[in-house]
Each structure stands twice: as structure tokens, then as C-alpha cells.
């Protein structure tokens, strides 16, 4: 796209004909111009995507960083520059640190369970793959449910007054109080978040398993009698790229995409419920009207995510085989 | 090392496809058996039943005197070389070869020694620490061979191991496989659809057609006395010419001319003519020349006798006219039943007066 059609046009043409030729993309040697005849066209195609990135990513990021250095008047009458104070406040607050600890815990537990159960189901489904079409559809359909709906359904299961799980717990002599008891709520959050993510992991693991060449499996069948050994030595290493991809996706999911689930479960409930850092950013910013503090929190979060991503790629990807 | 026996083995796939029907083969210890036949005739199915990768629907498979129908592949003490090599992509060449031994609880010292020995035999020494993707097709093929050798199994099973290699490499690997097998003396079952490969490798050939055994025999025996028109046309290049002929009054007639005297009842028969048994002569059957393949050492003349195609191998390079005369030694004729295609054993003798 370096040279424009203008260069190709004869010199004795008038400006109008030249412009027309340029606009309609006529060239002296059309065979050479394969992709875009008009230099504006690619930009036109790129524009919506660029706009989305700028408006919804760069601009808010810049805003967040800026406002994290200010103490904003809750009623919108101006802001005072306070330097790093918002950061110091956040990092010294035991509530913030508690939320951070829960987020880490939540992240580890949900990712482990969602990946583990997804893999287990995929391995089982892979064995009976002929009958798996309906099985697959059944499990994907769970993923088709949007998180708020999953949260709602989960909430119904865990409902204080009529939830079946509450009855089940009561049957075993336990009083389940989701939204009130910290660990009851945490359990509910984990169960719903895991439940929601399993189908996604299942599908990817299943297709990963199916892409292990049949003959390689058969060679392993001759080399090793124990199915567990074959899985551990052959299948799992060949599944590693899929697993790594899913690990990144799952961590991102637990940190960010669980927002609607948490919202449904803890919204308008008395304080001291478990939540993730993202939800706390929202709560402090929009409910607590502490824009500066919440901005500082989100900048910290950005840093954590950046760090995690770097760590994942540096230390894990190296040990993954892309055969 | 062991003998390998298939007794009335049959396979019906789910969905009712009869891939293999009533196959009986007795393989002696150390024998190299080649299963050959056209695509879809059930060669792989048969081999995979021996390996344990497919269940045996009917009959029994014995390896070393033990019935193995219900054993896992890993328990059968066989090693298999796959068409696409099936190397473990995440393991080094060394680990690929060692994996089967590790799982059989061999000691480190034994494993190391066997891998080193195999690497030496296959000239893989400098590649031991490479991953398969960093090897050429021929080298991968060797690793697959190495993986089979280190195991020192009762039998080697090969499923078209050379068909992914280029023609030249195929010929040299073919020789290497044969030499290795003779040196190790391991019973081998080898699948191919390449009749030349089959002829050159086999102690005995098993020609399969539509899941049934057409003929079992040493390569030359199969070549010289094909049991059916199917075998006749499959083994040998150029393929044996098969022509409709008549028997009348104790004489074999082709296009109205007597070729030989026979002692069978009158009626139609299928006559088989090997190209190298035919000679271009001054007096004989008239053949209209269609085209000539020059091969350097010889030429193959394709033509028509009456309205039937015939190929003749000719050692001369004198120019040919539009018509030539061909002749054949009556003892070199093959006769097959016109209906069933089975070989007819009969004594053929020269007719008193050469045909004009
Ligand atoms: N898993 C299967 N299910 C049903 N039918 C099968 C299955 N595998 C093979 N077949 C059928 O069994 C027959 C024999 O197949 P097989 O793979 O043994 O042929 P082959 O002789 O090895 O052919 P090729 O030379 O092409 O490899 C074919 O008709 C094939 O369609
Ligand atoms: Mg096959």
C-alpha cells in the first residue's frame, strides 16, 4: 500500500479525471494491485475496531490513572490532587487486603476445579465419542446461559427461603445462609462460577483430546498397559497447549467475568460478603462514590493482571510443547 | 520370537461391514510374511487384530502358542511400525525408543544399552536428543523402526511403513528392513499394497482380496502359479494379460488360432499371458501394435490380439511395423476357469502344426 494509484496515472489528465480514477480504483496495471485500490479503504475497515479500542480501553485507562491521583468530591464539585494517597489508603486497608486475599483464593479454587472437572469430563466423553454429540450439546448448552442467568439460577438453588440446596444442607443439619454467612456465600460463588466455566473448558479439552493423532494413541496402547500412565505420559503433554490457553482464560474469567455472578449473589446484602477486587472497584466507585480510591484500585488490578500475564507466558509457556 | 497363528479369523465392523472373512495363516518362527492386496481388502484390519487394536470378531489369534484374543495390545509382546510413524511428538528420539521399555520395568542400564544398540544399527546416534519434528521423513521412519527393535518383541507388525517415503528412499529402506529382520530373526507381518515391495520382502506372500485369502505362497510360487485371475493380475508388472479363449477338440484357441493342446473339456476359459513369456517372431499370432514403452534395457509393446489387450516384453530395438507376430511356449500358458477365475491345472503341449 505504499504507492498510490496517482503515480500510475498519465500526466496529461485533468485533476477531475485523475481524482475519479483514484476514487474508483482504476490503475494503469491493475494486475499488480491485488488488495486495496484506494488508500482510504483499509482505514475505513479498521476504524470501528480502533474506535472501540480507544473509546473503551485507552481512554478509560488514562482516565483511571489520572483520577487515581485525585480525591473527588462525592457530589461532583471538583477534585483535589492527593498524589499517591489513594494507593496508600487501599493498600493499608484491611478490607482491601481481605478482598485481595479472597480474590486470590477464589481464583485458585475456581480455576483448579473448573479445569479439573472440565478435563475429567472431556476424557470420559472422548472415550465414548460416538455417542458424544448429544452429550456435547448438553454441556455446551450450559455455557450458552449468560452469567447473570447462571447467577440467578444458582441464587435460586442457594436461596435462603426456598432453595433446594438450603433444604439439602438442612437435611444434614446445616443452616445454609448465602449472602449472610461469609463462607456460605463464598461456597455458593465458587460453585456457580465453576459450574458456569466447566462447559467451556470441556469443549476445549475435548477438541484438544480429539486432535491427538489416533496412531499416536495406538502406539501408546502398545507401549503402556496402564491407561493412567498413557494419560500422564502422552495425552497430558500433548494437551498442554490447550491447558495453558485455558489456564489464562480461566484466570481472567475468575478475576473479571465472574462479576455478574457476584453481583446477583451479594447485591444489596448486608456487608462483609466475599467479593473479588473487580467487584470492590465497582462497589467503592459507584456505590461508595469514591472515584479516586476505586480508580487507584483498578490501576493496581491492571498491574496485577499485567504481572500475571507476564508470569504465565514466561514460566509456563516454556514448558508447554507445541508438537 | 515366536510363531503366529490365525485360525478362521474374521472381522465384522459395527454397521455390518465384513472386512475380513475366514483367514487361516500359520506363520513360522522368524518368518517374514507380507499381506498384500488392493486398497480396502482388509490388510490393516487383519494386522490390527493381531496387534490388539481391533477386536477379533471370529476365530483365534495365537502368538507364541498363546491365545491373545482377549489380551491388551501391551500384553501381546508385539511391536508395531505405523504408516505415519506415530512418534510421540513431545519426546526426544531417545525417549521415544525407551518409553515401551520403561513401562515394562526394564532397568536403566538395559534400556540405555538397547537404545544405544538400536541407534547404532539405524545410524540414529547423532539424533538421539532431537524431537521428531526436527527429523526428516526417512529419519522418523528409522526412529519408528528403532522403537520396535529395542523392545525385542515376539513379532514385528508393519502397516505400510514405507508408503510416506519417496521412491528412492523406499527402495533403500526396504532393503534395510529385510536385512534387519534377517539379522534379528523376529517373526514379521508386513502390510503393503505395493506388489513389488511384497515380492522383494516376503518369505511368503498372503494375497488378500475382499477380506479373503486368495493365495499364500513364496513370491516366486505365487508369481509362477497364480491361484486365480485376481492374483495373476495383481502380482507382476506389467500385469499378466488375461484373455478370453476357447477350448475345442483338445486345443486351446485364441482368436481362431490353436496355441496348445490341452486335456480339458471344451468351453470358454481365461488365458493368462505374462509379458516376458511372449516373443516377437516371424510366424505366430497377429498382434496390432498400439504403443511401445521404452525402458532402456527392454521395451514393453502393448497391442491387440483380435479385440483383446496384450503386453509383450521385447529385448530388441528394431523398429516395429503396425502388425507383429507373437508366439509363446505352451508350458508358459496359464489357464483359469472362465466363471470362477480359479487356476486350472492341466498339461499343455505343443500342437503338431505351428499356427499360421
Ligand atoms: N472402523 C471401521 N468401521 C467400519 N468399517 C471399517 C472400519 N475400518 C475399516 N473398515 C472397512 O473395512 C474394510 C477394510 O479396511 P482396511 O483398512 O483393513 O483396508 P486396507 O486393506 O488396509 O486398505 P488400504 O490399503 O487402503 O489401507 C474397508 O472396506 C473399510 O471401509
Ligand atoms: Mg491399510
What would you note in describing this structure?
The complex is a heterodimer of chains A (323) and B (356). Chain A is mostly helical and 323 residues long. Chain A has two domains: 15-83, no CATH class; 89-322, MetI-like fold (Orthogonal Bundle), CATH 1.10.3720.10. Chain A has 13 helices and two strands, in the order ααββααααααααααα. Chain A has helices spanning 15-24, 40-67, 85-92, 94-127, 132-143, 147-158, 164-171, 182-210, 214-223, 227-257, 259-266, 277-287, 291-316, and strands at residues 70-72, 79-81. Chain A has a two-stranded antiparallel ribbon. In chain A, β1 (70-72) and β2 form a beta hairpin. Chain A is globular, with a radius of gyration of 27 Å. In chain B, the strands form four sheets. Chain B has a six-stranded mixed β-sheet, sandwiched between helices. Chain B is built from eight helices and 20 strands. In chain B, α2 packs across α3 (108-121), α2 runs parallel beside α4 and α3 crosses α4. Chain B is of the alpha+beta class. The chains are: A mainly alpha (323), B alpha+beta (356). The A-B interface holds A 213, 215-216, 218-226, 229, 233-234, 237-238, 240, 321, 323 and B 51-53, 72-75, 78-80, 82-90, 99-100, 103, 131, 133, 147. Residues 43-44 of chain B line the site of magnesium ion.
Summarize the structure.
Chain B: One of its GO terms (molecular function) is ATP binding. Chain A is mainly α and 323 residues long.
Amino acid at each position: 500500500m505504499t504507492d498510490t494509484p496517482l503515480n500510475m496515472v498519465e500526466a496529461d489528465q485533468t485533476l477531475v479525471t485523475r481524482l475519479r480514477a483514484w476514487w474508483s480504483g482504476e490503475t494503469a496495471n491493475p494486475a499488480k494491485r491485488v488488495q486495496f485500490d484506494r488508500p482510504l479503504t483499509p482505514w475505513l475497515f479498521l476504524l470501528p475496531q480502533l474506535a472501540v479500542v480507544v473509546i473503551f480501553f485507552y481512554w478509560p485507562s488514562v482516565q483511571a490513572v489520572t483520577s487515581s491521583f485525585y480525591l473527588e468530591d462525592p457530589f461532583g464539585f471538583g477534585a483535589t490532587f492527593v498524589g499517591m494517597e489513594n494507593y496508600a489508603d487501599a493498600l493499608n486497608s484491611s478490607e482491601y487486603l481481605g478482598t485481595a486475599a479472597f480474590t486470590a483464593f477464589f481464583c485458585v479454587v475456581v480455576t483448579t476445579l473448573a479445569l479439573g472437572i472440565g478435563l475429567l469430563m472431556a476424557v470420559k466423553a472422548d472415550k465414548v465419542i460416538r455417542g458424544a454429540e448429544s452429550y456435547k450439546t448438553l454441556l455446551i448448552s450450559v455455557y450458552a446461559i449468560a452469567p447473570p442467568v447462571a447467577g440467578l439460577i444458582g441464587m435460586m438453588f442457594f436461596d435462603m427461603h426456598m432453595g433446594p440446596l438450603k433444604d439439602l444442607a438442612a437435611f444434614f443439619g446445616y443452616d445454609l445462609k448465602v449472602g449472610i454467612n461469609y463462607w456460605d456465600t463464598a461456597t455458593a460463588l465458587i460453585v456457580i462460577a465453576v459450574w458456569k466455566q466447566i462447559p467451556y473448558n470441556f469443549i476445549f479439552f475435548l477438541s484438544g483430546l480429539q486432535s491427538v493423532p489416533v496412531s499416536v494413541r495406538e502406539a501408546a496402547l502398545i507401549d503402556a498397559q496402564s491407561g493412567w500412565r498413557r494419560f500422564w505420559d502422552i495425552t497430558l503433554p500433548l494437551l498442554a497447549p490447550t491447558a495453558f490457553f485455558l489456564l489464562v482464560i480461566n484466570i481472567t474469567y475468575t478475576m473479571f467475568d465472574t462479576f455478574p455472578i457476584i453481583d446477583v449473589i451479594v447485591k444489596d446484602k448486608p456487608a462483609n460478603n466475599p467479593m473479588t477486587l473487580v467487584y470492590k472497584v465497582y462497589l467503592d466507585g459507584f456505590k461508595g462514590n469514591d472515584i479516586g480510591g476505586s480508580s487507584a484500585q483498578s490501576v493496581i488490578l491492571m498491574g496485577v493482571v499485567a504481572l500475571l500475564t507476564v508470569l504465565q507466558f514466561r514460566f509456563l509457556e516454556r514448558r508447554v510443547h507445541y508438537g | 520370537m515366536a510363531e503366529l497363528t490365525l485360525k478362521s479369523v474374521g472381522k465384522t465392523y459395527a454397521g455390518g461391514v465384513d472386512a475380513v472373512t475366514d483367514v487361516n495363516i500359520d506363520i513360522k518362527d522368524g518368518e517374514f510374511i507380507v499381506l498384500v492386496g488392493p486398497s480396502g481388502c482388509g490388510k490393516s484390519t487383519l494386522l490390527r487384530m493381531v496387534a490388539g487394536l481391533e477386536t477379533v470378531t471370529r476365530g483365534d489369534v495365537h502368538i507364541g502358542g498363546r491365545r491373545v484374543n482377549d489380551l491388551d495390545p501391551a500384553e501381546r509382546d508385539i511391536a508395531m511400525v505405523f504408516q505415519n510413524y506415530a512418534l510421540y511428538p513431545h519426546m526426544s528420539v531417545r525417549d521415544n525408543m525407551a518409553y515401551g521399555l520403561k513401562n515394562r520395568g526394564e532397568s536403566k542400564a538395559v534400556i540405555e544399552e538397547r537404545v544405544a544398540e538400536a541407534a547404532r544399527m539405524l545410524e540414529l546416534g547423532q539424533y538421539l536428543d532431537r524431537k521428531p519434528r526436527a527429523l526428516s521423513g526417512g529419519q522418523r521412519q528409522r526412529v519408528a523402526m528403532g522403537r520396535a527393535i529395542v523392545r525385542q518383541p515376539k513379532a514385528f507388525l508393519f502397516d505400510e511403513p514405507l508408503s510416506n517415503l519417496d521412491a528412492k528412499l523406499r527402495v533403500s529402506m526396504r532393503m534395510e528392513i529385510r536385512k534387519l529382520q534377517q539379522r534379528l530373526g523376529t517373526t514379521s507381518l508386513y502390510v503393503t499394497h505395493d506388489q513389488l515391495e511384497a515380492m522383494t520382502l516376503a518369505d511368503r506372500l498372503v494375497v488378500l482380496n475382499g477380506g479373503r485369502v486368495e493365495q499364500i505362497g513364496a513370491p516366486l510360487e505365487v508369481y509362477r502359479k497364480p491361484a486365480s485371475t485376481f492374483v495373476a493380475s495383481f502380482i507382476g508388472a506389467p500385469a499378466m494379460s488375461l484373455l478370453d479363449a476357447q477350448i475345442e477338440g483338445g486345443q486351446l484357441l485364441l482368436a481362431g488360432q490353436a496355441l496348445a493342446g490341452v486335456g480339458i473339456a471344451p468351453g470358454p476359459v481365461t488365458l493368462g499371458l505374462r509379458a516376458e513369456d511372449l516373443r516377437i517372431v516371424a510366424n505366430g499370432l497377429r498382434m496390432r501394435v498400439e504403443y511401445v514403452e521404452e525402458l532402456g534395457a527392454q521395451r514393453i509393446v502393448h497391442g491387440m490380439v483380435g479385440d483383446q489387450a496384450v503386453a509383450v516384453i521385447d529385448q530388441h530395438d528394431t523398429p516395429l511395423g503396425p502388425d507383429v507376430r507373437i508366439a509363446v511356449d505352451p508350458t508358459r500358458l496359464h489357464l483359469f476357469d472362465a466363471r470362477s477365475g480359479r487356476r486350472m491345472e492341466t498339461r499343455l503341449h505343443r500342437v503338431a502344426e505351428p499356427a499360421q
